[in-house]
Every structure is written in structure tokens, then in C-alpha cells.
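Quick question: what would this complex look like in 3D?
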Amino acid sequence: MPETVSQTMIELDQVTKVFAGTTDPAVDALSLAVPRGELVVLVGPSGCGKTTTLKMINRIVEPTSGTITIDGQDQRTRPGYALRRDIGYVIQQIGLFPHKTIERNIATVPRLLGWDTHAITARVDELLALMDLDPAMRSRYPAELSGGQRQRVGVARALAADPPVMLMDEPYGAVDPLVRARLQDQLLELQADLAKTIVFVTHDIDEAIKLGDRIAILNVGGLLEQYDTPAEILRAPANDFVASFLGGERSLKRLSLIAARDAELVRGPVVPADASVDEAKRVGAAEGVDWVGVLDGARLRGWMWLNELDPAKAVGDSPTRDFRVWIQADTSLRGAVDAIVNTRNQVAVVYDGDHYQGMLFIESVSREILG
Amino acid sequence: MSELLAEVAAWFAAEGRWSLTDSGGVPFRTAQHLYVSVTATVLAVLIAIPPALVLAHRRTAEAFASAVVNIGRAIPSFGLIVIFWLIAARTGWLGTDFWPLVGALVALALPPIFTNTYTAVREVDAPTVEAARGMGYDETRILTEIELPLATPVMLAGVRLAFVQVIATTAIGAIVTNGGGLGRYIVDGFAQGVGGRATVIGGALLLGALTLLAEAGFGGLQRLLTPTGVRRDTPVQDVTVGAAG
């Protein structure tokens, strides 16, 4: 009989946390299902209980009431330390052990699980390579590393025993913006390969939009205001709180989530190189432009003004001007807009690899936003 | 002045002064002194460190920990020695030479050792401990593999402070007991009036030298036991000033 694998990896059911000595709950009857293999971001202002929620998943903080199940199992059925060996954990301050070498730091969980020495050494090698860290670093101490390197060692340590679930608490909060962007990109690349179930806490909505498959927006007191994909939240914020938390330029932020290939591409005013001038003029007129692009098979050679065409020759025999802007099909529409506003013919040429896909006009981008 | 120097020099050069067997000789007195001081310090370490580690790890007994410092500051060491000696003399337990003095010195050494250990563990970087817990360390491992090694430099600073105080105070023991090591010279010299001044000065010089040697020895031990990786960026700090000597 085929076993059905539940699509939900982590499920919070009516989880409440009231800290000792307080009356108002830090998290109030929160229910949330994290799908297997997705990166879910908990985001909200300070006091919204996002970190408390994260820490309840691995029982660093014990819930006051409610249940949390991981892969169908109530996480209270095991001692906390045993549970935590199966869950990767990354915090903002990283918390590398300063008296242990990088190798020993990364090997923490495998050693706790009793792996043999060869397996541990091999795994450390693998992780150093995966995180793009110099193998010579294994015998160094954390104090000798830069902030970005330490953050990567922290992620390597969390990944060491290949846990299905990772919890990340503002992991990039303390590194400078350039390094942060690079670490975010690296996480997305890793996630594309590893497909872990990740719960990621941040207060930065842009980070949430960039990283999250889904975003849970929490309000003060651990109230869930909206839980959806970034695109959907940006398209239709559930209420004023969510709208104000998303901040300005909501439309531009949405554009950053849509790839150029998913927008409406048009073939555009293009003709093959052997087309006649009459044909070129007809295509230009049909498209309402005074220029025409010239195709060499799958490649776009360039463009020329219609009134510059020599009627005695084929279109391809006249010199062409270069398109200033061409983008790849996976470029975001936000990137495409930036490109389009910098061109004279108000168009971005879209390629997939070196195959001409079509042209993207600013009007199509507008239509995307307006739905 | 030069007369005094000559007297002191003569005292150091006296017959049998460096004899290994003579009970009036420097080697015997130094050994006796160290025997008392080391015994007291080792006992204090054994008594103070385990509860300090456990209480600090659990983040409990905060009030108790700070009370210990204040008690430590208030104890007059001489009074303590007298009390222990009186108790021993009245009850006849354990004799009056060794244990009353050691008992008083242990009481003197406990506060700085306890407090430094407690503070050292409390001051271990909280995210490091949280990360250890998050990786799946149980509480015992957190204490023995993370907190204890990282607390070692500050803990040892407390033991060092206690040991130096104990060495200085052991000498006072010579007033009430037959122990007292190098303090014997100072007390006996005083008893002889002006004629004993070379003995007093000689004893004091030896005591000073022993204290400095103990300091230096402990400095070496601290360097040896500080984990690699925290040596350069974690300056050793004497967190508390313990009991007055």
C-alpha cells in the first residue's frame, strides 16, 4: 500500500505562550501549517512573538498551551535535546563555540549523534565546499573569521546532520547589506537544491519577500494577520495593518516577484533579415512604431529607423543599431522596468539563453500590476 | 640602617637556616606554610566550585551569590582564626595546630572562589549557550563542554585571588597555633622585642617572596588552562575583590 506523505511538515495548532510574570500572551492561539520543503518567513514588528513562535518549534521555549507537530509527530513525545538534534538552528548572533575549531563547530550535531570519525570528516569537507568556505579554515577558531564567514559556518553547523527542518532567527540581521544580499542569494540557491522545510524569522519585509515561499505576517501579541505567498500578500493585503507593514512601492515590490517570461511578451516589430523594405514598413505600421528589428534566425541582430531603409535592398543589407537593453527570461519585472525606462524605444528585448523570446513593453508591465 | 641590613644578612646566613631537616630552617617553614595554604585552597575549591557551577548554570540563587560576596568582605580573618582555635581548644577535636587554621583559611577562601565561578559561568556569552541548546546539547553537556571551559579564566582568577590571600593569612596563624609556617619567624621575632627585628624582617621578606611566586605560578596555570580560541580576545578579568586579608 503506498504511503501518503503529508504535505504539511510543521503544524502549529492553537499555540499560546504566556511568559511567567506577564498576563498578555506573547503568542495568542496561533495556528499555522508549514508545507514540506517550503521556506516560510515569520515577519512582524517587535513584540509580535515571531521569535517566540520559532523557539517553541524546537522547544527552547515551551508553549503554555496548544500543540506543535513535526512530520505528524507531537514534538513533546521526545526530550527537548533529542528533538533539537533533528532540527537545524541558526541565530543572529550565530553562537559559534569560541573554544572549538571550525571543524568541531560544524561537527557538533554529528558528534552528538555518534557518527564515526570518517563520516564526520567527510561531512565537514562537504559542508565547507557547499558553503563556499576554504578547506584550510577547518582548523581555525571562530575569532579568526569575518562576520560573513562565521554566518556561513553557522549555517553549515545547522545543516551538518542533514535535518529536514531548519529554524533561522534573523540570521542576517548583524551583517552589512552587501554581505546580507550575498548570503540571501546563497540560501536561495541552497534551498533550490536541498528543499528543506525552513522557518525564517525577520523584521525586514523586503527580506521576507525575497526569501519566502510564504509569509506569515504577525501583529503584536502573536496575532496572525495574513499568511500567503508574497505575490498574493502584495496583490491583496488582508487589512490596513498588513498594507502599512508592506510599506510604500508595493507594486514595485510585486514586480520583483514576477519573471519576465511570465509577463505578456509580444513578438514585436521584427522581420527576418531577407524581408523586403515594404514588408518592414507594413510590420512597423501594424505595431505603431517608426522602427523595426532584424532577426537572424533565433537571434535579434539589431534595429533601424524605417525612414533610413534603402528601398533597393533587403532589410538585412542595411546596418543596424544595437538594442541597448536585453534581459534574460528569468529577470524580474522590476529589473525589466529599470531597463526599459533607460531606453529610447521603451522596450526590453527578452532572451532565453541566446534565443529571442519577444519584447516586453512598459504597457505589459502595467497590465501585470493592474491584474 | 646598614647595621640593620647586616643583622638581616646575618639572620639569613645563620647556622641551620637552610637546613632541610631543622624545624627552624627556611625549607621546613616554607613547606609547612605551603602545606597549610594549599590544603585550605584545595578544600575551598572542592567545596565552592561544584555548587557555584550548578547554581550559575540554572541562573538561580542570584541573591545568595551576592550575599556570599558581602559576607566574604566582612569576615575579619584574624577573628576567624581565633574562633576556630577556641572551638578546637574547647572541644579537643582534631587538635589545635593544623585544622583550626585550615578551617579558618577555607572560610576565607570560599567567597572569592564561589563568586568568581558563579560570575564566570553567568557571563558566558548567552547566544553561545543558546546555540548549544539549539544543537541538542543536554544541560549537563552545556555545563561541562561549553560553560566550564569558557568560564575557566575567570574562575582561575578567583582561585588565584583566594590562594594569595590564604598564603598571606596563614602567617597570622602563627599567633594562635604552632602552625603558621613562615609566620613563625614574624611572631617569634616580635616576641623577642628589638633583638628579634632581623627575624621579623627576614620572615616578612620570605613571605613576600612566596606570595609573588604563587602569583606567578598561577599566572602560568591560567595561561595553560585557558582554551585556545579565546586566548587573545578574552582578557582575563578579576571580577570581584574578595575578602579582606
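Answer marked as accepted. The first strand of chain A starts at residue 8 and ends at 17.
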